[in-house]
Amino acid sequence: MRLSDELPVDHRLAVVYRWGSAVCGLILLLFAALGFTDALTPFSTSGDRIAGMTSNTSLSAISLVVGLALVAGAFIGGNTASTLNMTVGTLFLLSGFAHIFVLDRPANFLDFGMTNVIFSFIMGLVILTFGMYGRVSSRLSHDNPYWQRRHPRQAATESLRRRRGSRAAPPHKPLSSPSSRRNDPVAPVD
Question: Could you tell me the CA-to-CA distances from 144 to 10, 86, 133, 174, 187 in Å, in that order?
């Protein structure tokens, strides 16, 4: 089973995924362009500050690649943009944690400073939030396609009721025990 087959297409949320991906990608492209204008050697750790952060050619190249990937994800949109945002956001957070441990050490070949680490955490959380928006929550609304995909029987029953003209949805009853789940034709069986 492929991931793209598992996730529903949702056009309303695709706008959020696209905008988030595009804005974050453009910010990274701007940082990369400013880093390349400094034109240091690839692993130099004594460059100028750009937007308050240290940079070198290697960090600019990584920013360029990730920025282009996010902009491409914005053009593709949909689940691709959402999944890309979640992946890149997670990688930014991991990068922030990894670079905390190499600050002021020879292993800091990307010339990260504390402002870079903070930027990595903030950008990672922003990108991750854009990717998870509408997909991850404990209480998704029943018209959300991700909820419908996770609860196909109940979604089908609710859809059938709506089509038959019943405007009022019956109250959702919580399942109290595994035995009541077996007797309920709508509840998923574990």
Answer: 8, 19, 11, 19, 18
Provide the 3-class DSSP secondary structure of residue 30. Answer: helix
Helix intervals (H) in the chain: 3-6, 11-38, 57-76, 78-100, 114-132, 145-150, 152-163, 178-183
3-state class (DSSP) for residue 53? strand
pLDDT of 4-28, one tens digit each?
Answer: 445 555 556 677 788 888 999 999 9
Burial 135-150 (b: 16+ CB within 10 A, else e): beeeebeeebbbbbee
Which DSSP category does 167 fall into? -
CA 47, CA 39: separation in Å to the nearest integer?
9
137-186 tens-digit pLDDT = 667 677 777 777 777 888 888 878 877 775 555 555 555 555 555 555 55
- Three-state secondary structure call for residue 7: coil
